Amino acid sequence: MNKASRIFCPALITPKNAVVKQTEQLSRSQKLLTELGLVKSGSNGTYQIMPMAQRSVDKCIDLVQSNMQQAGGQKITLPILTPTGLWKKTGRLDGDISEFYMVRDRSGKQFLMSPTHEEAVTAMLATTSPISYRQLPLRLFQIGPKFRDELKTRFGLMRAKEFLMKDMYSFDVSEETAMETYTLVNAAYDRLFKQLEVPFVKVNAATGIMGGSVSHEYHYVSPVGEDNLLQCSSCGFAGNSEVVKAPASCPSCNSSDLKEVRGVEVAHTFLLGDKYSKPLGATFLNTTGKPQSLVMGCYGIGITRVIAAALEVLSSDHELRWPKLLAPYDVCLIGPKQGSKEQPEAEVIENELLLNVGEICGHQELLHDDRKELTIGKRLLEAKRLGHPLTIVVGAKSARLDSPKLEVHTSKGETYELDFSETLKLVAEHSQHKKSLERGCFQSETEESKSRSVGHQL
Amino acid sequence: MNKASRIFCPALITPKNAVVKQTEQLSRSQKLLTELGLVKSGSNGTYQIMPMAQRSVDKCIDLVQSNMQQAGGQKITLPILTPTGLWKKTGRLDGDISEFYMVRDRSGKQFLMSPTHEEAVTAMLATTSPISYRQLPLRLFQIGPKFRDELKTRFGLMRAKEFLMKDMYSFDVSEETAMETYTLVNAAYDRLFKQLEVPFVKVNAATGIMGGSVSHEYHYVSPVGEDNLLQCSSCGFAGNSEVVKAPASCPSCNSSDLKEVRGVEVAHTFLLGDKYSKPLGATFLNTTGKPQSLVMGCYGIGITRVIAAALEVLSSDHELRWPKLLAPYDVCLIGPKQGSKEQPEAEVIENELLLNVGEICGHQELLHDDRKELTIGKRLLEAKRLGHPLTIVVGAKSARLDSPKLEVHTSKGETYELDFSETLKLVAEHSQHKKSLERGCFQSETEESKSRSVGHQL
């Protein structure tokens, strides 16, 4: 169990002698994350993840990893330092390189602080004994920091210079089987984004500097998005305006019911063909034993960006709201105020709840706000701003030992007055919902509300 | 369950036109890791972790993390990029800086690719509202890549330029409470190193460039170690020869029974005092509400180095041997050879084993060597080189349906001939032993052997 009194949540202050430079734009969720001490701005465009937000990051890593493994992905780690020589071979240092961090070692050899790893993973395959067609398809992924020296960092974690990515690379024998892999990984992405329960738009995208033939982007729709998307209300077709240049009617169904929305790109998939395998010489041995270029795909998910963008979409100006599977804690339990007349009786209920709720949702998922020197009101306000899915208040009414009542707040803004067993039932429903999401069983918001049948809403 | 036919283990090859430069020394375990395709050398001094070794890394991360949390540690992430300005303030750029990777962003601002994070974490605390004495002690840790441009990289993962570290930083109100924290974290380290079951030596160490007053190092004893340690056979005292300069008798008990051994430093703890908090202005508010310098400690564990050094100590020239809690898989199951006359009957046993063994040790802990086109001998040889704690061979004798016998090999070099239920019992014993280790219950090697009472050793 976690105690609020011990958790490090450093509030934002401005040092006395500091000259305040507003060097970056903050969106509403990023402002909340900073004010609440979940994320702290480091040097311009880098961020420090504080303990509560770290829990969310770790949950996101686990969720992404489990989906990648289900899609046949094998986890590896490639060094952050990639020799620039590899990037020269693929031509990716020919254009604008101002976004790259480059560093030389003591011998003068130059490295990139990798913004992505197509070259590194392809070179790795090129320098092992060629694998047989029988070992393909091969899907390798990693989860780690990436670097991009952005001209303009914005919206905190949403566009940072150092960020956490999951990157997967696939290797196939032919364009045809590579397309099968591409479809399969896209299905894993669809599943993941459904698990996160944030509405997403999947669009046909430009392949751009990455190269290749087919590409899709996953976007969260938000006014702070940096991409213009075109959505067809009739058939559901969606495209990045970069690709689908302002058509009068839908390129797919001809309907004129097109609307433009702003999107935050949270994931991207590419069918790469032999763009990297050919110049770097990564081959496999085909059925006749001859070496042949591997056909590749690559698939990115911005871990920190998914969290930041999901918060931006779900939160209000004053309260964070998390995807259920990414909330730092499932339940916050606010104990009675010190010195209040109900304290002794209320603490009996509090202790029983700590035990029982912890057993239902897992003790690690329960945050005990034990700062009893603070009023319940102050702690409840903070709990609401932090957006815990369920907050249980052990207040004055809980001290009626014959029929104690608890106030339960959900992150959707509902408030219930519940007895002990109804409270546990609500916690159990939340945990069950999380488990079905983890299994990939999706239930619509409406069905979920219908199925909630305990207590009465205040 | 994991199938050997699908796991990416790229064997080492030398490209046709490459000029072979032996740029680095490889120790025996590092040679095995490379030859078996568990680790691949990237650019000089950087390493690519392949899927099977990645499982070991992830297990080590989980184990270290759980011990740090038990010691009150809260997990965070600090950026890899640390502004050099912070290091100027603490004087750590005044000496030899040739080991640092430094990089400038597009605005010309200079950063270190952090080799450690004392400055960054202290500056983070200095720029939040001062915490109250009531919130202390505070212990923050992270697990991530570190960078050091070594003059000479050696022994693969054991001394690499980019490596994985756990670094914890503690903050206290006084030297006295800081010493309590120091003792507590050292106890967590002792526990961790006992869980790994590799003999370790804890020595009094020099504080060196890190500063501070008290320091201990944890070493694995190995001929490839880079430190000279002095050990007293009488009282157990141990010191790094840097600190304890060749005394005639033990500084602790006066015995003359001193021996010198070579050690690989796998962890290091420091009591830092205010060496960092003072120049960077990191304070807390004391009982009278006045700001006062935080008293710090720092505690590192080289994740990738622990794995590499443990393998070096435990392995032979031809076979890897892992700490039980870090083996990529608990059990390897080798299926019958394709086309052998026993294949149909043996596959009945094989399928039952897959189900039952997987249920006992966890399906993710079972590696199924399904490459039936290869002989059992060839696959067994590879399994032994990979050092799986238990390898079960479904060979000719397993096809006697009335009383099938299985050959079971342990990584200690024992071979048993067991029936079905005895095999499951051995797997269960292994899993139980792992669970007791995880709980921190330690049993000596001898007791463990005594408690093993199944079958007969071949």
TrEMBL record, chains A, B:
Pfam families in UniProt: HGTP_anticodon, tRNA-synt_2b
The keyword Signal is annotated on this UniProt entry: no
Keyword rRNA-binding: no
Gene3D superfamilies xref list: Anticodon-binding domain (3.40.50.800), Bira Bifunctional Protein, Domain 2 (3.30.930.10)
SUPFAM superfamilies named in the record: Class II aaRS ABD-related, Class II aaRS and biotin synthetases
Catalytic activity: tRNA(Pro) + L-proline + ATP = L-prolyl-tRNA(Pro) + AMP + diphosphate
EC number: 6.1.1.15
GO biological process: prolyl-tRNA aminoacylation
Positions of region (Disordered): 437-458
GO molecular function annotations of the record: ATP binding; proline-tRNA ligase activity
PROSITE patterns for the chain: AA_TRNA_LIGASE_II
Record keywords: Aminoacyl-tRNA synthetase, ATP-binding, Ligase, Nucleotide-binding, Protein biosynthesis
InterPro entries: aa-tRNA-synt_IIb, aa-tRNA-synth_II, aa-tRNA-synth_II/BPL/LPL, Anticodon-bd, Anticodon-bd_dom_sf, Pro-tRNA-ligase_IIa, Pro-tRNA_synthetase, ProRS_anticodon_short
One of the record's GO cellular component terms: mitochondrion
Domain Aminoacyl-transfer RNA synthetases class-II family profile: start-end pairs: 68-323
Listed PANTHER family: MITOCHONDRIAL RIBOSOME PROTEIN L39/PROLYL-TRNA LIGASE FAMILY MEMBER, PROLINE--TRNA LIGASE, MITOCHONDRIAL-RELATED
Protein name per UniProt: Probable proline--tRNA ligase, mitochondrial
Species for this entry: Drosophila melanogaster (Fruit fly)
